[in-house]
Each structure stands twice: as C-alpha cells, then as structure tokens.
Amino acid sequence: MVSNEPTLTTETSFVYAIGQIEHRFPNLGLEKEYAQVVGRSETAGFRDRQVTQKVLAERENRYLARQLCWVLRVEGLDTYLLQPRDPMDFEMLIEALSRPYSSEDDVDVVIGLRGPIAPPGMCNGLTVPIVFFDQIYSFDKDTLIKAMPKPQKIEAEQFEGDARDLFSRVVQLADNAGATDEHRALNYLAVRYPEIYHETSRQFIENASLSAVDVRPSRLSGSRKILDVIFSYTHRQSDILEKRFVRVDVTDMFPFLVTKLSPFYER
After folding, report:
1. Sequence-ordered list of residues with C-beta below 8 angstroms from that of 153, at least 6 positions apart, any chain
2. pLDDT tens digits, residue range 35-80?
3. Can you give the residue ranges of every domain in the chain?
C-alpha cells in the first residue's frame, strides 16, 4: 500500500474520470502466485475475466487484490494507478471486473484525489499519477442510456443513438483525464444529468448540429467554484446559433448541479 496519500487542502486536486479499469501484475512472483490459486479453483467454462473476478472475490484471496496494479485507461491510454483510500474499497475494483466480458462500451467512473506519480517499481515501470479513490461506478454505455428517462416526442431508438453520440464526444474531448475542474464538470454531467442528452437529441431532430461545448467560470463564483457548461447548436441550413447552459459546482470532490439547463445569452 502506498503511504504518501494526499491530504485534503485547498490545493487538493480532485479527479472525476471516465475510463476502463484493468488489473496487471507488478512482478512475476505475484503472477505465478495467482496462477497457482487459479489452478486450485473450479473455473471450467469461465472466461479469463470471470476467472479473475471469481478468484479475487473470495476473501482468502484478497491479498492478491491488494498487491495487483489497478490501472484506469482513458481513451486507450494508461492514465492512473488506483488505490482505495479505505482498504475495504478493494471490493469496488473487484466489482469492476464482474462484467462477463471486456468491451469498449465498458464505463468505469473513478472519483477521488490525485496523488504523486507512481515510482517505477510500483507497477512494472508504469509511471502515471496515483488516484486515491473514494467511489467507483461501473456500468456500460447501453445500461446508462437505457436508464435515462426518454423524451415523450422522440423515438427511443433515435434518442439512444443521439445520447451515445453525445457521451462519446464528451469523453473524447482533448486530454479529458477528469483532473481539471472543466473536465470534472463535463464528466459529472455525462453520467448524472440526462437533460443534456434530451436537448441534444431535440436539436438533432430540428436539423441542428452540436457545434461546441465550452466550460467557463460562472459569474456566480465567489467562495465556491462554479462553472458554466455551454452547449452550442448550429442549424445546418440557416446557421442560426442557439446556446444552452447548465451550472455545476466543482468546489468539492463530488460536483453537483446548481442550475438546470436553460438558454444562454452572451453578456
């Protein structure tokens, strides 16, 4: 276990990242130990991912989970090494493996504190920041989208396709590792605020494109850090521009909505 966990200060860097969690072996010795444990387990008919989840979920094998490297990959890149702030929360990492097979549609949302760069010996030479997490949400895109309330005047198939498109655009924004306030606000909205999907789908039906997504400090910011997230839609024929925005408070580890989606006017 890493001992240099960051403390909560005004300079603390929070993380609200969207990616996929993978496990890796930091050394050959642990890999051989894992293989011996698997050899003693009943795993016939299981896929490799299911085998790992089954083995690590057993209490007597929890020592393996504590010594594995847990990597969050964002857009296919190794981005963070994950460590729970509470040792009991290794359960969340193991649960992230509970899906029957790995898919590009897998979504793991990691919320926590960004710590130092991992030393080369921690995970077989991988030197990325450590995130000490407090919460992990694991699901797939289809589950997220199907759980959203459907707009009454939009067909379900149309809405689900539009929502998938918007979700992909948010998580693929340049350098969105969920470590800046702007990206934390966007990632929070992507997984917790269905109204941005409703509005984007409505705009598509009315022949408008999502032309920009901007994040800027709100004029309401004072003692708290509040951001305006602005969605710009441009009509494909008339070039008329419409903007909608939502305010998000990112002062603390867990962002929250300040005002609902509404028209935005430049001042």
Report:
1. none
2. 999 988 887 778 888 888 889 988 899 999 999 999 999 988 999 9
3. 1-139, 148-267
